[in-house]
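Input C-alpha cells:
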C-alpha cells in the first residue's frame, strides 16, 4: 500500500520565499562573523567562491527535483539515481546537520530577543528558545499554506533590515582594503568558504518540499535560481560592509558564543536606529530559519519513514494531507534536546562538513540523469562534486573525523534495521 502524497500548494514566489527564509538567518547573521574570524578580509572572496559552488549544486538540485518531485530531496535522488546506501547517507547527514542548525537558530533567536529586552540569563535563553520552537511547530502542524504566510512576513522584515544595513554601511566602507595577511591565507579562505557555503544551503528546503510545489519542472529551477541570485547579491553587500567598514577588530565572535558582528558595526553608523532595526531583522531571521528547518527536517523523516529506513509511523499525514504530523513532532523533540547542549561554532562547522557531503551526493546523482532529463550542462555537476569533496575537508580535523564516524554509525544502523527484510 503506497503512502498518500502531500498537496501541491506552492508557486514560484512562495517557493523562493521559502528558500530565502531558510537561508537568511544564521547564514548571514552568524556565518559571516565566523568566516571573518577565520579569514579576515578574505571573507569577501570566500563569499564569492561559496556562491559559485552553491550555483553548481543548486542547478543539480533543481534538475533532480524537476524530474523527481517528491519529499526527501537528495535522500530520494540517491535512491532513484544511485543506490540505497548513498541515498540513506544523504538523508542521515541532512538530519544530523540540520537538527543541530535548528537548535542553533532557536538559541540565536533567544539570544537576540533577550538582548533586545535587556535580559541576560541562560535559563531564560533556553526557555525562550523552547517556546519559539513550540510556537513554530504548531504553525507547521497547520500545513504548508499557513507556514508560507508566516514565512513571508518573517522574510520581509529580514530583507528590509539587511537592505538598510548595506545601504547605510556602503558609504562608510574604506575602499583601501587591507592586504591579505596571515589571517587571509589560501588555507583560511578555503576554510571560510566551507563555512560560508552553509550560508547558501537553505535552498535545499525547496527541493525537500518539492512534493508540495505546483508544476515542479518549471517552478523549482526558477525558485532556486532566484533564491541564489538574491542571496549572493545580499551576502556580497554585507561582506563588503563588514570587512570594509568594520575593521579587523570587529570581525570576530562575541563572548559566550553568540555572534553579532553586524550589530556591532551598525552602532558606528551615523544614522541612528540601524542597529536596532538589524536586531529586529536578526530575530525574525532566526525564526525564519527555524520554521523552514522544521518543515525540511519533517519531510526527510517522512521520506525515510516511507522507505522503512526509519519507523513507518513517520510517514503518516494528517487527515487533510497537508503535513506529516508525527514527523513534525519528532523534529520538535530532537531539536528541543539539542537546544540544551548547542554550541554555535562547533555546530556550524559540523553543518558545513555534513552539508558538503550531502551535496556531493546530489551532484553525483545529477550525473546519472539521462540527456532527456538533464536541464543544464553536465560539467556543472562535475564542478559541484569536486568542489564539495574538496571543501568538506577544510573544516577542523576533529569535525570531519566525527562526521565520518557518524556516517559509519548511520550505515550500521541501516544494515541492522534492514536485516529482517533480507532474511
Amino acid at each position: 500500500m503506497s503512502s498518500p502524497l502531500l498537496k501541491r500548494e506552492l508557486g514560484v514566489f512562495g517557493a523562493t520565499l521559502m528558500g530565502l527564509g531558510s537561508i537568511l538567518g544564521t547564514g548571514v547573521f552568524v556565518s559571516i562573523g565566523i568566516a571573518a574570524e577565520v579569514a579576515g578580509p578574505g571573507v569577501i572572496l570566500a563569499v564569492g567562491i561559496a556562491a559559485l559552488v552553491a550555483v553548481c549544486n543548486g542547478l543539480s538540485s533543481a534538475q533532480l527535483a524537476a524530474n523527481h518531485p517528491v519529499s526527501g530531496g537528495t535522500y530520494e535522488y540517491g535512491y532513484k539515481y544511485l543506490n540505497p546506501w548513498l541515498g540513506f547517507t544523504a538523508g542521515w547527514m541532512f538530519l544530523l546537520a540540520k537538527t543541530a542548525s535548528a537548535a542553533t537558530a532557536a538559541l540565536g533567536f533567544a539570544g537576540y530577543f533577550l538582548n533586545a529586552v535587556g535580559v541576560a540569563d541562560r535559563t531564560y535563553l533556553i526557555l525562550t528558545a523552547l517556546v519559539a520552537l513550540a510556537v513554530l511547530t504548531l504553525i507547521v502542524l497547520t500545513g504548508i499554506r499557513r507556514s508560507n504566510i508566516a514565512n513571508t512576513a518573517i522574510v520581509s522584515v529580514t530583507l528590509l533590515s539587511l537592505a538598510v544595513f548595506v545601504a547605510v554601511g556602503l558609504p562608510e566602507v574604506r575602499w583601501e582594503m587591507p592586504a591579505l595577511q596571515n589571517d587571509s591565507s589560501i588555507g583560511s579562505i578555503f576554510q571560510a568558504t566551507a563555512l560560508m557555503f552553509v550560508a547558501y544551503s537553505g535552498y535545499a528546503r525547496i527541493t525537500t518540499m518539492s512534493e508540495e510545489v505546483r508544476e515542479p519542472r518549471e517552478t523549482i529551477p526558477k525558485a532556486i535560481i532566484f533564491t541564489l541570485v538574491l542571496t549572493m547579491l545580499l551576502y556580497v553587500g554585507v561582506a563588503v560592509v563588514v570587512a570594509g567598514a568594520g575593521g579587523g577588530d570587529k570581525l570576530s565572535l562575541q563572548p559566550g558564543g553568540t555572534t553579532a558582528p553586524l550589530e556591532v558595526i551598525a552602532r558606528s553608523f551615523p544614522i541612528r536606529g540601524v542597529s536596532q532595526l538589524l536586531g529586529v531583522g536578526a530575530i525574525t531571521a532566526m525564526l525564519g530559519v527555524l520554521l523552514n528547518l522544521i518543515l525540511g527536517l519533517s519531510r526527510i523523516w517522512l521520506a525515510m519513514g516511507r522507505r522503512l529506513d526509519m519507523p513507518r509511523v513517520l510517514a503518516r499525514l494528517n487527515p487533510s494531507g497537508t503535513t506529516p504530523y508525527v514527523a513534525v513532532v519528532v523534529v520538535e523533540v530532537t531539536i528541543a534536546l539539542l537546544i540544551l547542549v548547542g554550541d554555535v561554532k562547533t555546530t556550524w562547522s559540523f553543518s558545513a562538513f555534513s552539508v558538503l557531503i550531502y551535496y556531493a551526493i546530489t551532484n553525483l546523482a545529477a550525473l546519472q540523469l539521462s540527456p532527456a532529463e538533464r536541464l543544464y550542462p553536465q560539467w556543472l555537476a562535475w564542478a559541484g562534486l569536486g568542489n564539495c569533496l574538496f571543501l568538506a575537508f577544510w573544516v577542523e580535523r576533529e569535525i570531519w573525523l566525527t562526521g565520518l564516524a557518524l556516517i559509519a554509525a548511520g550505515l550500521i544502523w541501516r544494515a541492522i534495521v534492514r536485516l529482517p527484510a533480507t532474511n
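The chain is about 70% helix and 0% strand. Confidence is low (pLDDT under 50) at residues 177-182, 247-259.
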